Fold this protein.
Amino acid sequence: MECEAPDTKESWDWAVLTGDAWKKHGQAVADATPYLPGSFERPPQNPAEKISSGYKAWEWLMYLIGLGPALLYGILPHKYWRHFCKGVSVIHCFHQRKIPTNELRQAHQHAMEYVSEFETLYYQQMKERLHFVRQSVHGMAHLGPEAIRVGPQAYVAQWTMERTIGNLGEEIKQHSDPYANLSQRGLRRCQVNVLKAVIPGLDSDDTRNPLLPRGCEDLGDDFVLLRARDEWLNLIADDAASAIRKLLRAKSDTGDIKLKRWARLRLPNGQIARSAWKEKNKPLKSVRMARNVKVAIDGQLEIAEVQFYCRSKEGRALALGSLYSRPNAALLEDSYNTVWSCTAPTGFVAFWAKDIRAVVAMVPHKPDGSCIWIRQHSNKLSQSSWQAQW
């Protein structure tokens, strides 16, 4: 960024990602890759090496909005970090497909505060820094009103438009006159969409996944158990067996259990939740970890590491997992609910497979940005912590 006199770069106290700090931060971003599920699509590359050579828009989103709040904690000065997290919370809200009214009001308030605080913190009413205030900063003030006018940004954002243009482009068959052909394909798409809106039965869910993989088990409600699976009954003992017995309300609270383990579960949202049973057999660099899930247990959302899936004698699918701790309350509030920092999962708990809501990422982090499992030295993070991407 340009620095015009009398302004000096020495006065830019937010410019902390320089030298070795920038290299360490870039490596921390790259080290998060194994912990990001495949359903999160393209992981961000090391920004210290790739940020000016083909860094994709999706990588920017995952880097800044996904990993940023946790990886910049303890690096960016606190007032700038909180301001950054406030902006991230706004983007989180407007990327939802359904936005409750109370969340919309809160996000709009935060967006207005973010824009005002950006000018106070960075621009500081100095004409030499006028170029700091980009159009994208001002644009955040319009997200709330536009969501009321045209709906959530997930449906009208550039992502949606580019995907639609790509889909229509793939349908072109008459290359001698592509623009006329594209116009007709667009017209036909509109006509089909109108018919589906008028007659919803034409858009049957059965057409989404007409064929299921060989050897799978359809659980109903768009939940599907996928292989690998034990060929023979496997012995489950001690605490793991007790957790399963508690869920099944078995007459005896003790004794071993024999069952066949399943490795994967396809969720209604299209994600495939995996399990530690198979993922831990692979080296970390070869894994896109998908065994951490968001699950509703006794009416409360928890984050669990799934050990394996199985079925009861009655045919109901269940999962054996280990629960992460509840998020660090102080850090959660300080970050505007953008950093869910939890301690490592312990013990065993069994829950019904259909109570799983989504696959999430649990990325090890610490204040200086290194993506390794260590002891924290901050007052707010007094023990080993993990960050959840929702």
Q: What stands out?
A: Residues 101-123 form the longest helix (23 residues). Residues 158-203 form one domain. The radius of gyration is 24 Å.
